[in-house]
Hints:
Blueprint: E1 9-14, E2 17-22, E3 28-33, E4 40-45, E5 48-53, E6 56-61, E7 67-71, H1 93-115
Antiparallel strand pairs: 1-2, 2-3, 4-5, 5-6, 6-7
Amino acid sequence: MNTMQTSALIFVGIRGSVVALDRATGEQVWASHLKGSDFVNVFVEGGQVFATCYGEVFCLDARTGIAMWHNRLKGLGTGLATLATDGQGGRGIAPALAEKRRRDEAAAAAAVVATT
């Protein structure tokens, strides 16, 4: 079991997974595949990593990457989702908004190409 403090880690959401890196060395400490290969929105609070991917929410132990719980958000679709808690202060919204903007711009560019 990993005994590294969560403050010594950086958490990356990428292609359906969450990866924890050692802040000092960049070395991978753990990786947890969530679902698919879609954008992953991540934030950390109270020793837990909360992540959304493919319209579902996951809670991982920040030290080990082991899933603590998972909610499929049944009936709500598979789009991008943002996360927030009272203690977070809105910090988790920016990555999801940036990804939505990127997707919207790519769709608009594809539509222009399709009409030319």
